[in-house]
Structures are given as structure tokens and as C-alpha cells.
Design brief:
heterodimer, A: about 110 residues, mainly beta, 6-stranded mixed β-sheet, 4-stranded antiparallel β-sheet, 12 strands, B: about 120 residues, 7-stranded mixed β-sheet
Chain lengths: ~110, ~120
């Protein structure tokens, strides 16, 4: 069975600095998707970034980028120029290519220090 | 972007009563909807997957008679918590997607249920 592990329950970063959130996963599939979701205090889940496993190029979305290491089954999220609005729970998630059920990590609480 | 609306956002009910939570896709037809439960400071736990017009598929350990899911139309799925008890108090989230499109499911804003 697939699993997703986030080993950092909480991270803090100074505003305007860069922070990296870690995620590892386990799967025997070769084709799958990985995601980072943000859940702010409003608790609305927001898709931050998506990575397709067959793509070697790391996905980026403005200040958000990932370091996808397929062989190591690692999928970290880098947030550059951290802003106060980035404070939230961040969840790493996985799904198979054809199965839209998501497997979730435990989450990392990101604190932004002004 | 696609919008999924959950209603109500929060509800308080008495122990022993039933409460219904609605999940609507406002601008697309949702062939599949997912229902999650989230305990405080924890991740999302998938409760069930429902496809329009068919019975929901429940995850192991989720009581189907306790958590009734109906997906009667392409824009509406409902979760009814029957004979609610305080331990059912939680945050419930739905998400919806369209079959045939390579897009991710869109999430509702969640419903906080408190059973007193």
C-alpha cells in the first residue's frame, strides 16, 4: 500500500526567508501524481502544486517549487520569500495515475515569523 | 475555477439526532465525490467515495449505516450523520471531480459538526 510521510510536525521561518518542507512516499507504481496542499486557518484545502511522476522537471508555481527525487521517493516543497499569508498546514499527498483517491501525509504546520 | 460548496459551514446538533451535510458542485458536473473526516490537528481521513447514481464505496472501518451518503445528481452529494453522538464531532470535507478530465478534485470549505 502507498504511504506518505511528513516528518516535520512544525516548521517556522522568518518572513521573506526560504523554507523547505519534507515529504517522502512509498509506492510500487511508476506512474503517479504528487501534490502539496495548503490548509489555512479557514480550513479550505488549496492545491499549491502538482507533480507528475513521469516528468523529470520539477514543478514550480511562483514562489513555490518542488524538489522531486523519484528514485529516493522524496518530494519536498520550497517556499521562497515567505509571506505571512503562507502560514498554514501543508499536506503532501499522492495518488496513482488512474485512481483519484488521495493518500495524505500527516501535515506540517508552517509558522511565519514577522 | 471550479467551485464546490458545502453547507452548512458549521452545525451543532443534539446527541441522538441526525444531521445532513450537502456538497454541491456549482459550475461543473461532479461524477465522483469524496467525503473526508478531519480530526483536530490531523490529516484527512477518506470516509467514502461516491459516484453519481451508484452506491458509495466506504473505507474500512467507516460505518455505512452511520454515515449515509447519497449522490443522486451530478451536482449534489449528501452526507447524513445518523443518530449523532459526541464522538462524531469533527470537521467533514467533501471534494468533487469530473470523470474524463485530467484535473484534480476540488474541495469544499468543510463543515464543522459539534454534537452536544
Amino acid at each position: 500500500a502507498q504511504t506518505v510521510t511528513q516528518s516535520q510536525p512544525e516548521m517556522s521561518v522568518q518572513e521573506a526567508e526560504t523554507v523547505t518542507l519534507s515529504c517522502t512516499y512509498d509506492t510500487s507504481e511508476s506512474d503517479y501524481y504528487l501534490f502539496w496542499y495548503k490548509q489555512p486557518p479557514s480550513r479550505q484545502m488549496i492545491l499549491v502544486i502538482r507533480q507528475e511522476a513521469y516528468k523529470q522537471q520539477n514543478a514550480t508555481e511562483n514562489r513555490f517549487s518542488v524538489n522531486f527525487q523519484k528514485a529516493a521517493k522524496s518530494f519536498s516543497l520550497k517556499i521562497s520569500d515567505s509571506q505571512l499569508g503562507d502560514a498554514a498546514m501543508y499536506f503532501c499527498a499522492y495518488r496513482d495515475h488512474s485512481n483519484y483517491q488521495l493518500i495524505w501525509g500527516a501535515g506540517t504546520k508552517l509558522i511565519i515569523k514577522p | 475555477g471550479a467551485v464546490v460548496s458545502q453547507h452548512p459551514s458549521w452545525v451543532i446538533c443534539k446527541s441522538g439526532t441526525s444531521v445532513k451535510i450537502e456538497c454541491r458542485s456549482l459550475d461543473f458536473q461532479a461524477t465522483t465525490m469524496f467525503w473526508y473526516r478531519q480530526f483536530p490537528k490531523q490529516s484527512l481521513m477518506l470516509m467514502a467515495t461516491s459516484n453519481e447514481g451508484s452506491k458509495a464505496t466506504y473505507e474500512q472501518g467507516v460505518e455505512k449505516d452511520k454515515f449515509l451518503i447519497n449522490h443522486a445528481s451530478l451536482t449534489l452529494s449528501t452526507l447524513t450523520v445518523t443518530s449523532a453522538h459526541p464522538e462524531d464531532s469533527s470537521f467533514y470535507i467533501c471534494s468533487a471531480r469530473v470523470a474524463g478530465l485530467n484535473t484534480e478534485a476540488f474541495f469544499g470549505q468543510g463543515t464543522r459538526l459539534t454534537v452536544v
